[in-house]
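The freezer alarm interrupted the setup, so I double-checked each line after restarting. Inputs confirmed:
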Amino acid sequence: MSRKIHIFDTTLRDGEQVPGAKLNKRQKLEIALQLAKLNVDVIEAGFPCSSPDDLKAVQAIAQEVRGPIIAGLARTVREDIDSAWEAVRQAERPRIHVFVGSSDIHISKKLRRDRNTTLEMAAEAVRYAKKFCRDVEFSTEDGSRTDFDFLCRIIDATVNAGATVINVPDTVGYALPEEYGDLIRKIRERMDPHVILSVHCHNDLGLAVANSLAAVRNGADQVECTVNGIGERAGNASLEEIVMVLKTRYASYQANVGINTQEIYRTSRMVSRIMNIPVQPNKAIVGGNAFAHSSGIHQDGVLKDRTTYEIMKPEDLGIKQHKIVLTARSGRSALRHRLGELGYTLEADVFERVYNRFIDVADRKKEIASQDLQSIVEIEVFKVPETYSMQSMQIMSGTKMVPLASVTLLRGDRLITDAATGNGPVDAVFHGIERITGVHGKLRDYDLKAITMGRDALGEAMVRVQIGETVYSGIGTSPDVIEASARAYLNAFNRYFANGGAAMIDNPQALKGEVQTPIEMSASRE
Ligand code: KIV
Ligand code: ZN
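Predicted 3D structure, all chains:
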């Protein structure tokens, strides 16, 4: 008999814990609206007590997103639960999600308590949350490493206190599919069948999806996961993989999910771009190569009959191929039409920005593919306010010279130009941006990829830049990969300014001495 598996998406909470992936209210809301289109059952929108901004973002999601349950996370303390309720109370279907570490490692080393105190605090917290909200989830953090008898005791206590969902996470990704499956079966057998049993797996050993599926086979009703599998450390179980396994291998699991798979690809791209976390090319379901057939034998097979080497249809994931190509000669109405097909309805001012950027790119690239357009749109739609915007850049580089970049940025109505050298052209242009802004960044991550095939492919650069103690992410696209990198770097700097960071213009003393000076050319390097 077929049963329903609830998909609990925690991209906006566990996924947002990735360094540099912090989102603002508008970005969180956009992703939540897309998750509702994807038709997830639950959106864990944040950890409201973690910051006033997160509380406001969860509140906005609760007010505006209709369909899924909206959950807010809380520790077993009243202030957390008060914030969580404050954040989700206006949702159509609110949920408070309370958690506490239940393994001896967590209880003794992190919480510095004993088992009984932890159990009493958990039950008390659920009772307190129940005063506000009918739907309360309780998580036994590090559940897979928790002593089984104690796990049963804490589950019984919280169910008796009114928990409607019990989640048993594999917090550190330590479990193996057989043992996690057994654990879930034993809990399911002894727990009230009306209480939803949930699983939440991390990917430290690369087993998050396998463990989640073993749990489904053994009676789990809800799977907690994230888009693209992002999350703490090696990430969480990937939503799209779980969903597509359950759909593609339906006969094996006899489990239904309500996910609108046509929205999977779009959601994946949106999360990747807004959070600036690239998707690895060989990632199952949504990676750039997931449907690319490169060997001659495979291509031949797919041309004769696609089922020879394809077990899913790209169209079912919303990966569309459009016959009409957009070029620099395509007007506004062709662009608007294609945007509509891709599911975007843009406000007039955003449409103008997208159009201008489209023309700028199309002037340098013969044809603009849908993927190129999606990248342009998402960057323009979620643009951080630009303290500095890129006006122009020139690079001189070669095998026998120190690369030199001249960069011109616009700040208000001032055009500021400076030049810098670097270890390569990208480094030189980054130094140029630093010299103008007076801010020094440490590049923590740099990813560059071609969005489509071909020599004139649009390059998409994603960076993570540490400024002071905080890591800011940035994204940029251009047919010129150095320009794409410069735009991404500047985008990260603009995030820093949007968060109150000072530029040298505003505070010349603050950053003195930190900015790298140009590399001096020595005779031996000529
Ligand atoms: O990994 C974990 O245990 C968690 C809990 C807070 C549910 O994220
Ligand atoms: Zn987690």
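Quick read of the result. The pocket of zinc ion (ligand 2) is lined by residues 14, 169, 171, 200, 202, 232 (CB under 6 Å).
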